[in-house]
Design brief:
This protein has about 425 residues and is an alpha/beta fold. It has 15 helices and 17 strands.
Length: about 425
């Protein structure tokens, strides 16, 4: 099969000075800066692979120390890390967030306090270490969620509700169903902000190249209004595939470092959540996933979004964190194993054959991507290339190549560029 390597152009504004931006946003927050000297400040740190997160957290620490505050890091990731205090510290370590790199303690515990209930009887939980601090700075990337859409999705409010809520908070919100998540996150976070020492949020937006585009302080007073505006800005920066209808999508690697669901449902157009309608604007007939990323540490959340994979992938799965993640979220279909084959070549052949006997292999619309986060460079079949709307998609052709295999594995990989 003839393929073309193309490069897409996305909106790409970028923060040029992380330190200056972080310090300016912290300095602008009156609630933070009126705390007394020696006040203990908890800083949230999640499980996502956010670009520049180590540098951003480090600058927050340095700013707080400069103000004679006593900062510490709180792992804020719901049930991730196997829902254990040690496991959550390990997740942070793999992201480069350690007591040595931060220069402050990491206080990890799954113990939460029940702060109360919302007006519609939703329980509100918060990490005990964070609640007992004099102030809390909530840090998170703002972006589209992988299970629901609303005024706030994945961002600061979710970090308050699920991240700081630990397993209890995460489990309760998810068991209410995806259709109720926006409401629950909004209401629980409102209550938590009003009844805890949260003094500000620091939102991060990334552009279509996975680079830090915005770092913005959020006040307690206008929390949800500001986050809603930031979410709209984030969605405007999101990368996308150049076609919304495909026969086959080959994803070289999936994992938690690319999306909380391994593959971003907003990119591939699949939800696989009971009671939630599947998207109609993206239609991909078959999805083949080749490998699981090392930073996922065996957590294959999202493999159920694929149709085909390899035995190599299946053998890398650590069922404990994978199942824990699925059970906590209640989205069980997302971890149901697809058909798997001994080699990548066999898996692709099965995917193509499954399209039906009438399919002309020279006219298959196929795209190969490194993962669902990095979409600027990809391989595309000639048939698919000819269907791109050039008025809506800004791209250029890099080179022509053949779809080839060596010892049953794809010869050409895009991952090397990332």
């Amino acid at each position: 099969m003839q393929l073309y390597e193309i490069e897409q152009t996305f909106k790409g504004e970028k923060v040029t000075d992380i330190k200056e931006t972080v310090w300016a946003e912290l300095q602008a927050n009156k609630q933070l800066n009126t705390l007394p000297e020696q006040a203990e400040i908890a800083i949230t740190a999640g499980s996502r692979g956010i670009e520049n997160i180590v540098l951003i957290l480090k600058e927050i620490v340095l700013y707080l120390k400069d103000k004679n505050y006593k900062p510490f890091i709180v792992p804020s990731m719901g049930s991730h890390g196997g829902a254990t205090a040690e496991g959550q510290v390990e997740v942070l370590h793999h992201l480069g967030i350690t007591e040595i790199s931060m220069g402050v303690p990491i206080r990890s515990s799954m113990e939460v306090l029940h702060l109360g209930t919302t007006p519609d009887d939703l329980p509100v939980y918060m990490d005990k270490n964070a609640y007992e601090a004099d102030g809390i700075i909530v840090i998170n990337r703002v972006k589209a969620h992988t299970a629901f859409h609303g005024k706030v999705e994945s961002g600061l409010s979710k970090m308050v509700t699920i991240g700081l809520g630990k397993q209890k908070g995460a489990s309760f919100v998810h068991t209410q169903g995806a259709n109720n998540m926006e409401h629950n996150i909004m209401e629980v976070s409102k209550y938590a902000i009003a009844h805890s020492p949260i003094c500000m949020g620091l939102a991060i937006i990334e552009n279509g190249y996975d680079q830090t585009a915005v770092i913005k302080g959020v006040t307690v007073k206008d929390w949800h209004k500001q986050e809603e505006a930031l979410l709209k800005q984030s969605k405007d920066f999101m990368p996308s595939l150049p076609l919304s209808d495909l026969d086959v999508l080959v994803v070289e690697e999936m994992g938690k470092n690319y999306s909380g669901t391994g593959m971003d449902p907003n990119i591939i157009g699949r939800m696989r959540i009971e009671g939630v309608e599947e998207p109609t604007d993206i239609n991909i007939a078959r999805i083949l996933v080749l490998d699981l990323s090392e930073p996922s540490h065996g957590n294959a959340q999202g493999i159920g979004l694929a149709d085909f994979t390899t035995e190599n992938f299946i053998n890398k799965i650590d069922r404990k964190p994978t199942y824990m993640n699925a059970i906590t979220s209640t989205f069980l279909r997302r971890v149901m194993f697809p058909m798997h084959y001994a080699t990548e070549e066999e898996a692709l052949e099965a995917a193509i054959t499954s399209l039906g006997p009438e399919v002309n292999r020279d006219e298959i619309d196929l795209i190969q991507v490194p993962n669902t986060l990095h979409l600027s460079r990809l391989y595309i079949s000639e048939s698919a290339l000819n269907k791109i709307n050039k008025e809506k998609v800004d791209f250029k052709i890099i080179r022509k190549l053949e779809l080839q295999f060596e010892n049953g594995e794809f010869s050409n990989r895009l991952l090397a560029a990332h």
